[in-house]
Specification:
The chain is of the alpha/beta class. 28% of the residues lie in helices and 22% in strands. The protein folds into two domains: 226 residues, Medium-chain alcohol dehydrogenases, catalytic domain (Quinone Oxidoreductase, Chain A, domain 1), CATH 3.90.180; 161 residues, NAD(P)-binding Rossmann-like Domain (Rossmann fold, 3-Layer(aba) Sandwich), CATH 3.40.50.720. It is globular, with a radius of gyration of 20 Å.
Length: 396
């Protein structure tokens, strides 16, 4: 291992690929740890939540190495690692989790109590998530390797589907979690807000769970066209602001059983201006009485670029009384990836879902990552997959 390079956040709308230190078996505070593994990264993806940081909409510090969607090959392990070994091809949940605390033991690995001094939950390369170095790089260190890493059972078979399997680190479980939280089932009518990669993954999850019809709303014509190509019902939000009417045009009534917010705090209204609570309020409008709302879209506790003082602290103007009066169930928070990644791996390996096509996975080199960020920020209907060592290209 030598010559590590990674995608570094330097300020709003400014990322560069730079030389970075080789990973060590060390915690962010410098302590030696023996429960960790070092990976040669096979695939690492650009996520919409990375984009929030790069836009300057968080308190992320300059110098942060980005990247929490990681698939790799183990090249070194600490002496306490027993269940995975050098040479294994593994999927890394974006959650950094110890596997031993109360929440991890309960399956809520998104809010591990020990890996972040500031708040529950840890992640790689993300603001306020424990200081774990990100994986949009050539190499990365993963702690608590026996607990966190999921080994692919057949390396050659996995490499043949690596564009799909790289989605198991975050986006596919996150979208699926949104659909599960919205209680999608056989015959459900579903509305997904946002036709970006997470919204498309949520639609894929709804399809797996048996939804009768899944509608996806967005303003972006390229993303809506891709949603239609993948067999979902596009809802063009640029037409007017009466979402219920557009839903009724598809299902005959202005409501759905399940709604999924895949947009988050940078939501925009029909007028074009930013309205951070607009999607959540729409969800309560169009979800039927006793229906459910899943919220995989990111909401933050501090947004320096928010439109008003309340939103800068993560306080939103919700019509919560409407949700209460309709007996809605709402669920949000970081996805506990380990709850879903093995079952979704099986769905991919046995051709139950073509998630790479659904999110329009597009492979780029590590040095091209800044251009990938620019294109994604401009609304490209693509999920950018970084191939640091050219291994995906070889597999293809």
């Amino acid at each position: 291992m030598s010559g590590n390079r990674g995608v570094v956040y330097l300020g709003p709308k400014h990322v560069e690929v730079q030389d970075i230190p080789d990973p060590k078996l060390e915690a962010p505070d410098g302590r030696r740890i023996e429960h960790a593994a070092i990976l040669k990264i096979v695939a690492t993806n650009i996520c919409g939540s990375d984009q929030h940081m790069v836009r300057g909409r968080t308190t992320a510090p300059a110098g942060l190495v980005l990247g929490h969607e990681i698939t790799g090959e183990i090249i070194e392990t600490g002496r306490d690692v027993e269940m995975v070994a050098k040479g294994d091809l593994v999927s890394v949940p974006f959650n950094v989790a110890c596997g031993r605390c109360r929440t991890c033991r309960g399956g809520d690995t998104g809010v591990c109590l020990t890996v972040n001094d500031g708040r529950p939950g840890g992640a790689y390369g993300y603001v306020d998530m424990g200081g774990w170095i990100g994986g949009q790089a050539r190499y990365v260190m993963v702690p608590y390797a026996d607990f966190n890493l999921m080994k692919f059972p057949d390396k050659a078979r996995a490499m043949a589907k690596i564009r799909d399997l790289t989605m198991l680190t975050d986006i596919f479980p996150t979208g699926f979690h949104g659909a599960v939280s919205a209680k999608v089932g056989v015959g459900s009518t579903v509305y997904v807000a946002g036709a970006g990669p997470v919204g498309m993954a949520a639609a894929a999850g709804a399809r797996l769970l048996g939804a009768a019809v899944t509608m996806i709303g967005d303003f972006n014509p390229e993303r809506l066209a891709h949603a239609k190509k993948m067999g979902f019902e596009p809802i063009d939000l640029s037409k007017h602001d009466r979402l219920g009417e557009m839903i009724a045009d598809v299902v005959g009534v202005p409501e759905v059983d399940s709604a999924i917010d895949a947009v988050g705090f940078e939501a925009r209204g029909h007028s074009g201006g930013e309205q951070p609570a607009v999607v959540l309020n729409q969800m309560m409008d169009i979800t039927r009485a006793a229906g459910s709302i899943g919220i995989p879209g990111l909401y933050v506790t501090a947004d320096p670029g928010a439109v008003d003082a309340a939103a800068k602290e993560g306080s939103l103007s919700l019509r919560f009384g409407k949700g209460w009066s309709k007996a809605h169930s709402l669920h949000t928070g970081q996805t506990p990836v380990l709850r879903y990644n093995r079952m979704l791996m099986q769905a991919i390996l046995y051709d139950r879902v073509n998630i790479a096509d659904i999110v329009n996975a597009t492979v780029i080199g590590l040095e091209d990552a800044p251009q990938g960020y620019e294109a994604f920020d401009a609304g490209a209907a693509r999920k950018y997959v970084i191939d640091p060592h050219g291994m995906i290209a070889k597999a293809a």
